[in-house]
Amino acid sequence: MFNSPLTHLILPAPAKLNLMLHITGQRADGYHQLQTLFQFLDLHDELTFQLTQDGKTTLQPQLAGVAVEDNLIMRAARLLEPLRSNTNFGVEIHLQKNLPMGGGLGAGSSDAATTLLALNQLWQLGLNLTQLAKLGLQLGADVPVFIFGQTAWAEGIGEILTPTKAEEAVYLLVFPGCHCDTGKLFSHPNLPRSTPLIDSKNIQQHLGENDFEPLVRQLYPAVEAAFTWLMAENQQPYLTGSGASVYCRMASKKQAKTLANKLPLSFAGLKPRAWVTKSSNQSSAHIKLMADKGSLFNFA
User: Fold this and answer.
1) What is the pLDDT of residues 231-253, one digit of tens each?
2) Domain coverage including residue 20
3) Domain holding 152: CATH number?
4) Is 16 noted as a catalytic residue in this protein?
């Protein structure tokens, strides 16, 4: 029998937007310093966690081109396994993959963060957000913002977070069908690396700016095609993260749906996808955890 008040969790792993992104320098270890504003979307992957009594961690299904042990979900679970001093439970994890990989939406980082949040619950580890974020940083610079679950102004390599709020809005989000190679982009000689630092009080003046945009549009014809289409529809498109997804702010869901229905069948020979989505200042994973009466999570 399970000796745990909670044996099963289903949690979202939300997408994020970078409402602006500047690259301000590069450290001696190669990591890039940046300033960015993160906000969450109501689009998400969904992860199901079921405690088992065999002590094993498993993940299904396997993503094409990604070895199970390389998946950030499994890597997150492996970080927590040594901390199971009060339990020998394992867990079966099922991933419903809705968000594109290489889309600039933080999908892998969000999956990892949701895994850390969920297993902290199920294995009753008692870690707080700061402790989980420190672990998550080992997996990627975007993981901590998903752990804390609030709209945030980020600096450093993305790990220095200041909670804030941004206007929640309706967006049309377009994935052009290509996957941008973040490592290739960060190492490209034409990537700007010396954008002047700005004061967080002046964020509004820089919304939509993204230092990756010119390079991504140059290297990925499908992204350029998405920009061209949206501008022809009298919209102002922006790039999120290092691409490939492009977003534009809409006046209403009705307007966004009308435009989504006009999505071309192809961008540079690739099949695009479009979503009508709304931004949120709080992660849907946190909303679900706090609403769950069986939740033991410590949000300190």
Assistant:
1) 999 999 999 999 999 999 999 99
2) 1-300
3) 3.30.230.10
4) yes
